[in-house]
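User: Okay, second chain of the day. Same drill as before: sequence in, structure tokens out.
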Amino acid sequence: MDPARYDVAIIGGGILGLATALALVDSGCRNLIVVEAEGELAAHQTGNNSGVIHSGLYYKPGSLKARNCAAGREMMYRFCAEHGLPHERCGKIVVACDAAELPALDELERRGRANGLEGIRRIPPEETRELEPHVACIAALHVPETGIADYRAVTGKYAELVATAGGAVRKSRRVIGCRHGSDGITLETTEGALHTRHVINCGGLWSDRVARMCGVDPRLQIVPFRGEYYELKPERAHLVRNLIYPVPDPRFPFLGVHFTRMVKGGVECGPNAVLALARAGYSWRKIAPGDLCQLGVYGGFWRMAARYWRMGLGEMHRSLSKTAFVRGLQRLIPEVRADDVTPAGAGVRAQAVEPNGALVDDFRIIEAEKMIHVLNAPSPAATASLSIGLHVANLARKNFALA
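Assistant: Same drill. Structure tokens below.
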């Protein structure tokens, strides 16, 4: 039985919710509960990403992403090593395929150095082919601090440690209402009422809705973007040794289709970034009329669409046409053919969009009375989860007067 009252209730059993819980129990706050709507932890963004431990290359120096990725990357490597979780610091290359991409490659190198990356260096095509023999490029960055991990396993270990320390982790318990009282907050859930002094919202794809349910205006809306993957057939996996990325378009918070060697074996190709027709829209067949109606009445969505419709059509084309998707892969590795790849699932990114149509690029965390809401935490949130969790826990200790 759950106790009558908790000091903290964390909504969301993904990697950030559990990392925050872990940071809190490590600091002595044991009377907490994590509630997850699904029947398993890490069911959405955490469990459906490419498993990359990001270096911190892409992010604006001084931003929350940059600071937390740099710290969180090393914390993640240490955590995985300490607990025997599969991981590898394998490095990656970012390749420029034509001269028009060289200025953006220069900016990536500048950001990487500003963010303290060690060993990052510009390499010519001949040295690039020593690392990745099948790549075609005119220049590249070698980023040795990038790695790979199993984030489902990481999240499971976080949950185990939280439970061992005395915290509670409950699955299949969706929050459907929130009432504020003089003595705290009552969360109505599908498994009954839950009483808590404080709430931390790590709801991911539903974080904006959770905030509104709790009486907070998030001043943004989550727009779901599906990232679809292919996988190289085993007999063609030799085409990729580690991680191969294109130079991303600086206008968008997406990194472009790339090749990722996975920690459990195999090579993943992708993802693209296409508008999903449901918050959990992992395929074109998954359509949620309520989610679409909410998008349809949000002015920020239409302003975003007016600004980026050409990019959106291109992503849709790659989603519906395997030939177009493979063409994107061939810019990096010309030898890849359509017969070399097979469909390999999808993930959905919770992209926050402001009322003016701007894509929120940095992490967005807001504080309210008795509450903290993590509203935008896309990649590199998994990489940086221990650092972000520590940051949120510090906010909680300050605002909630926790031990």
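The mean pLDDT is 94.

User: Thanks, on to the next one.
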